[in-house]
Amino acid sequence: MEHPTAPDFAAALGSHGLGRLRRARPTTLQVNVGKRCNQACHHCHVDAGPKRTEVMGDAVAERIVALLERHPGIEQLDVTGGAPELAPCFRGLVSQARRLGRRVIDRCNLTVLLEAEQADLAPFLAAHAVEIVASLPCYGPENVDAQRGQGVFEKSIRVLRMLNGLGYGAPGSALRLDLVYNPVGAHLPPPQEQLEADYRRQLWERFGITFHRLLTITNMPINRFAEQLARLGEERRYMALLVNHFNPATVPGLMCRTLLSVGYDGRLYDCDFNQMLELPLGAGAWRTIWDVGDLAALDGAPVGTGPHCFGCTAGAGSSCGGALA
Question: Among 243, 257, 318, 321, which is most buried by a count of CB atoms within 10 Å?
Fold first, then answer.
């Protein structure tokens, strides 16, 4: 679901002399392994939840591993969902990617590590040196529980302490633990560096928790968050906020330029947001992971864009790696 007036992202690029958004050669393979999740967050652009049944099958997972084997220029596998850990293929993908020497990122909601069938998940992640990017939209319970569900903050703190106990997030540790902040309402994130300092102080003083970085991510006006905006009558105001804060300095660092997104069914996209809107790979030649040839062919290819792209270019910018400018 997008804003009905459909502001023109391509025109915004043109007005700053930037031309059409184009790709570089991919260095990250971001894989959405399914939409099942143990939470149903209000802002979720995937529309994930406990009742979703979409999940990646073995054939797609095997093809991903083969793609990594053929293309050493892909430096990291970024695994997302839903709660990616609930997909049957998750551990196999992690193990195979690490065997090939790739960095692996697990985009984790934290509470999934408390699920009964995941009792050994945290040690598994540590044993494979998986980098954890964990959702924690505030350092206090009110905002977290309002966005993610009652009791989620307390469970998240328990899991963060458990991860710290395994070495995650400790200064100098190779077990990387980054946290993710996204606004509870219809506004842009505050400056990332300033907010990170607040998180670091609050989580250490109140709970004895350490982490590496805080990443700020703007809520995208698609799927569940777009529906929430419409219910509250804030859809037009939020889109105007994004458009009016367009920042051309964010464009060179947009994740879609060096990322190839793979859906649970093997279809290809320029980013996870395009995937949820079913906006296919802008390059046009490849539709699924079985079509992929030489990834060098993507260098200079166009990126599929739409009004939601203003979410990644507003203010300091937003990507899976946090602020861009």
Answer: 318
